Amino acid sequence: MQSYPNHWEADVVLTDGGTAHIRPIVPEDADLLRAFHSRLSPETIYFRFFAPYPKLSDRDVKRFTHVDYEDRVALVATISDVMVSVVRYDKVSEDEAEVAFVVEDAHQGRGLASVLLEHIGAAARERGIRRFIADVLPENRRMINVFREAGYTAQQTFDEGVIRLTLDLEPTDSSQEVMRAREQRAESRSISRLLFPESVAVIGASRTAHTIGQTALRNLLAADFQGPVFPVHPEAKAVAGVRAYRSVLDIPDPVDLAVVAVRADMVADVVDECARKGVHGLVVVSSGFGETGPEGRARQDELVRTARAAGMRVVGPNCLGIANTDPAVSLNATLSPDLPPRGPIGFFSQSGALGRAILQRVADRGMGLSTFVSAGNRADVSGNDLVQYWQEDPATEVVLQYLESLGNPRKFTRLARRLAQHKPVVAVRSGGSSQGVPTGHAAGALALPDYAVTSLFEQAGVVRVDDITQMFDVAQLFAYQPLPAGPRVGILGNSDSLGLLVKDACVRSGLKPHEPVDLGPKATAEDFDRALTAALADDAVHSVVVVFIPALNPISDDVAAVMRAKAATGDKPIVTTYLGYQGLPEELRRTGEDGRTVRGSVPSYPAPEDAVRALAHATRYSMWRRRDAGRHPELADIDGARAREIIDRTLAMEEDAEGIPRPVWFTSEPVHNEENAVAPEAARDLFACYGIDVWEDVPVASADEAVAAAERIGYPVVVKANAPDLRLRAGGSGIRADLRTSSDVRGAFTALFDRLGEEAMLAVQRMVVPGVPTVIRAGENPSFGSVVGFGLADVTAELLDDRAFRLAPLTDADAADLVRAVRSSPLLFGLPAGATSLAEQPDVDALEELLIRVSRLVEAFGEVAHVDLDPVVVNAEGAHVLGARVWLREPPDLRPDAGPRRLRGVTF
């Protein structure tokens, strides 16, 4: 049985787009190691061992393959089960280890050394190693550059002809930036290899009409793919007039991309043959995998494992396919014959069933696509991979995504936020797919209402829409019109009623409309020209909505020509409701020399409300791009190491009969009847590790104990009920406040105990200066990762669901937005009842810092599933946490976006 952590194994993408598998070395690797060493050049051996070392002795092999995974750790990279690289460290002191790596000559320059250094560094940090040292020959410039470019803090010395490099393993902003830049380049390259193949094989090409194999082949040929196409059929000599081969192995030329259209039970053999052939990527349109249940999921996992081990990426299975409209490729490796023309939009869809309808709708609206990927079950290639590719793709200006789940939510929000700084990202997120929800997720996970999902997308810069129609409404504006500089909207047209409808829709959407300019039913093109010229020249107008009813005027292209001309030269967006058209009608479309629709085309909507809704989305996105994203402030009094000790100790104390940690309630409040409760002192210690002071409360079982507690704490005090099903908030029915004498305390305890009984779990706590009671909740959401929620702690706010949510970790700008996002936030910015000066105004700055600290806690520890601070009283003296609960559990496989680069696990 292996004695190393499972997460030390990973599939990784290399700089050329290929893949490799990283895992710890094991004794059974002896023969692989000997063969690996035998393929190394004398120069590579000399650089590694500082001497000729043509053959490894049996003693060497045993020493290199037998490690303890503590003080001595070695990782290997394999491709098709062949060892191609090794990295190892040997501990030399309490927190220091010597590191060395070697990469087979044939695979040097593919980024193996850099990614192995990231993984061995992460393993070392887990084992308490804080520094690496490496002795390098001066002429080994490649290895020196790997260490220098890693972004770590490095010190260099030179002694007796050897350079000693010292690397601080603590991640820095520089090292994180370097790691993510390499990740972006590698993942982008892996997608580029799929979208720009030089040759394609269709495995399962059929002579029977309307089969998926024949459809895939005919669509490739009809699109005029610019490279050779190889049908693969076990018997036919030709399919669709093209010479066929019995197996992909029989094809005499290289094959870059294979479209797999065979039965699910035959796919494994096909993938194995593709691996031996050296195929770069697979598009598996076959069904019968993860969508069918556990057996299909196992088959799907094996498909991905085999492909990745051989350096191949997989689109699908159960997908529509991929397309690239670049004329240098003209790739239509999909099951849809309706491929839109070339355009600036990149589209990713998880749904294969919707894919064909989506492609048809794009074409119907007169829009064009740069690339299209329908990933089906998303076993390997996901929307995150496409985001990495589109970030630097000059042909893609707008990104559309139809999402049923987010495979790696943390990574999605990070990548989307980065991409959205330069290109609009529009997403339809449907519900209901279990594929993105980790199994075994704790019941305490933070659930989110739909409006919260929208706000979290907006925080990341993603425009979330409700359906495909709205997606295209927004996309045609983003793709062919400039972004509005602000919310002020000019309205003009030949219908007073339609103008008023636009104005009302603007107000409802949060825009600021000017009074509509009614040109009258007899308005001519010249009238529209003058009005549109004036509106566009007005600095107080940021965008213009034009409404035109042809029924009041003979149908003419003159008005359309005016809008088209103004849009061609202006820097403000123009949208219209024109002739009942939806999309980019020919009258409003500008075309380039090649006939493609180009910028300056004016999108038309069937109803004014549709036009305004799209314009509102574009305006909010534009303002998001202009806003200050804030910073992650340095916070004092954070002790992550101590927090880790407390969490690990707590979970270790709560093992069941089989030694498996159980979920536990971890609370600052006295809990008598919960089986897995933890001492309040430990809970306060955990919060204190992040600078969060939870006020002590003393559990009491009698009036005498209550009086004794009050006298120890000091008056005034409160007596409150701490039962989970009773309100803990100031003013609730389970609390008696402002108790200043022993008789007050005795009477309060007796009254509450007589009414609520011993199940109320009564406690005494020092009384806080009155302020505004609030609630902070944070935790892990299966679709987004760590999320922080905020609201006021009163019945009205709860009934109205007046809460706001943001992704963790919060910047200072995020925290300020979160506080102000709730409708009842004005209560925090006025004077409380009875206050007479601004000095008594609630300390909102302290509240915002508390939100940031909570966000750091839930982001740092996957074991923290849910945090509930209730109430947090905000007064002039600060933000005071009077009650706190934490739900701890063993961290599920949430695929956190941290640590060394890796592809998603194949089971999710």
TrEMBL record:
<dbReference type="Pfam" id="PF00583">
    <property type="entry name" value="Acetyltransf_1"/>
</dbReference>
<dbReference type="GO" id="GO:0016747">
    <property type="term" value="F:acyltransferase activity, transferring groups other than amino-acyl groups"/>
</dbReference>
<dbReference type="Pfam" id="PF13607">
    <property type="entry name" value="Succ_CoA_lig"/>
</dbReference>
<dbReference type="InterPro" id="IPR016181">
    <property type="entry name" value="Acyl_CoA_acyltransferase"/>
</dbReference>
<dbReference type="InterPro" id="IPR032875">
    <property type="entry name" value="Succ_CoA_lig_flav_dom"/>
</dbReference>
<dbReference type="Pfam" id="PF13549">
    <property type="entry name" value="ATP-grasp_5"/>
</dbReference>
<keyword id="KW-0067">ATP-binding</keyword>
<feature type="domain" description="N-acetyltransferase">
    <location>
        <begin position="20"/>
        <end position="170"/>
    </location>
</feature>
<dbReference type="InterPro" id="IPR003781">
    <property type="entry name" value="CoA-bd"/>
</dbReference>
<keyword id="KW-0808">Transferase</keyword>
<dbReference type="InterPro" id="IPR013815">
    <property type="entry name" value="ATP_grasp_subdomain_1"/>
</dbReference>
<dbReference type="InterPro" id="IPR011761">
    <property type="entry name" value="ATP-grasp"/>
</dbReference>
<dbReference type="InterPro" id="IPR016102">
    <property type="entry name" value="Succinyl-CoA_synth-like"/>
</dbReference>
<protein>
    <submittedName>
        <fullName>Acyl-CoA synthetase (NDP forming)/RimJ/RimL family protein N-acetyltransferase</fullName>
    </submittedName>
</protein>
<feature type="domain" description="ATP-grasp">
    <location>
        <begin position="684"/>
        <end position="735"/>
    </location>
</feature>
<keyword id="KW-0547">Nucleotide-binding</keyword>
<dbReference type="Pfam" id="PF13380">
    <property type="entry name" value="CoA_binding_2"/>
</dbReference>
<dbReference type="GO" id="GO:0005524">
    <property type="term" value="F:ATP binding"/>
</dbReference>
<dbReference type="GO" id="GO:0046872">
    <property type="term" value="F:metal ion binding"/>
</dbReference>
<dbReference type="InterPro" id="IPR000182">
    <property type="entry name" value="GNAT_dom"/>
</dbReference>
<dbReference type="InterPro" id="IPR036291">
    <property type="entry name" value="NAD(P)-bd_dom_sf"/>
</dbReference>
